[in-house]
Amino acid sequence: MHQYLYLSKGIKIPLYNLFIGIGVTFAFLYLDKQLIEKKIDFNKDRYLYYSIIISLFFAFLGAKLADIFNKNLRVSLNNFYRGGFTFYGGLIFGIIAFFIMNNFFDLNNRYYLNLLVPSLVLAHAWGRIGCFFAGCCFGKPTGFILGVVFPENSLASLKYGVGTAVHPTQLYEAFFLFILFFILISKVFFKKRISVYLISYSIFRFFIEYLRGDNRGYFFLSIFSPSQIISVFMLIIGFILFQWDSINCK
Amino acid sequence: MSKERGTSNVPMIMGIIGGVLGIPAAFCSGACASVITSGSASSGEIGSFYLAAAIIGAVLGFIGGLLGKKSPKVAGILMLLGTLLAGITLIAGNMLALVVAILFLLGGIFCFTQDKEEVTS
Q1: I need a labelling partner for B50 at 20 to 30 A (CA). Which of A225, A227, B14, B94 fits?
Q2: What pLDDT sits at residue A52?
């Protein structure tokens, strides 16, 4: 865990933010490459970017609000500033905003979402490496060979004690997402990208939640975390879309 | 109708990295400004001003970066405004804002100087 990259005595760069930046950069570079390959009209290309910018704002808002909701905190500006991010909250708010903006700009929702999915996966994968450097989203204690010992001031050490090896769940997820990205761009039919993403990520997320050691939040069912409940809904939506696409692709 | 489109990815890279680093820089600026002016009655207000200026700067620079190829002139103006706002917060002694300001400045300059191509729609 290295929270900061020290450029000089007075300048330290937070690695969590830097990795998110790297991920978002690669995501947009890949999106640009696809837009050129698919020969998208310049105006639609530009409207798509407007739509993404507005969606990103709502995704940020959603990720923050979901974190506050998950941790059962009061909605206040202070908690909003200090809280973390919840991926699913950002995803749901972002997709809703993306659909609304696409309808406003007269863009095809399904087509552009299929175009966007690999970029989303890529940004998420890099973001998880950022999580590893920040020391958040850590796993439960383990004697497994891949177990990682975080430094004494880290969240994992504060919870489980200094020197305790925990599952590097951030890296498991990053590895899975990189593999998923390559599968999506090389093996999956374009129209099925969303459904394959929803199915595979929700299944992975459901099970990785059992290895997570950080605060998983509260919901009315205490046996499952909020992320697992959302995963189940995502899985159902993914299967419905997959079937729908299979029928329409014939 | 013909329009101009940029060809360089540099503004986008500068804008995104500057934007994501701009958010923690904004919180540092707000905190630094509050500490520096802690003796005065308006300490909290000054801190809030620096925080708001830095956040707006980061958002403008980020949006400018994303539009670097689509609308180079608008993107250039947004990134230079981002540079200005990040630059203002340097007074509070936050050196991360210096990195952000340099990234936005480079991105803004690239927006104006990059090769452009005409597109018809």
Answers
A1: B14
A2: 95
The end-to-end CA distance of chain B, in Å, is 6
Query: Which of A7, A41, A49 faces B66 most closely, judged by CB atoms?
Result: A49
Report the relative pairing of strands B116-120 and A148-149 from DSSP bridges. unpaired
Q: Tell me: the pLDDT tens digits for B38-85?
A: 777 676 777 788 888 889 999 999 999 999 998 999 999 999 999 999
Whether A76 has its CB under 8 Å from any CB of chain B: the answer is no
- Cα distance between residue A176 and residue A197, in whole Å: 12
Three-state secondary structure call for residue B8: coil
Question: B26-47 b/e with 16+ CB inside 10 Å = b?
Answer: bbbbbebbbebbeeeeeeeebb
Q: What is the pLDDT of residues A160-197, one digit of tens each?
A: 999 899 999 999 999 999 999 999 999 999 999 999 99
Give the angle subtended at the CA of B2 by the CAs of A109 and B71, to the nearest 5°.
60
ipTM metric: 0.89
Beta bridge partners of A14: A4
Residue A171 contacts residue A129 (beta carbons within 8 Å)? yes
Q: Which of residues 59-78 of B touch A (CB under 8 A)?
A: 63, 66-67, 69-71
Question: What's the whole-model pTM score?
Answer: 0.91
pLDDT (tens digit per residue) in A101-145? 999 999 998 999 999 999 999 999 999 999 999 999 999 999 999
Cα gap A40→B103, rounded to integer Å: 30
Residues of A in contact with B16 (CB under 8 A): 21, 24-25, 28
**CB contact, 8 Å: A32 with chain B?**
yes
In angstroms, the CA A35 to CA B54 distance is 32
* Residues of chain A neighbouring B70 (CB-CB closer than 8 A): 45-46, 49
Residues 6+ apart with CB under 8 A from B4: B72, B73, B116, B117, B118, B119
C-alpha span between A68 and A162 (Å, rounded): 28
Distances (CA, A) of A50 to A53, A57, A71, B70: 5, 11, 32, 10
Whole-number pLDDT of residue A250? 60
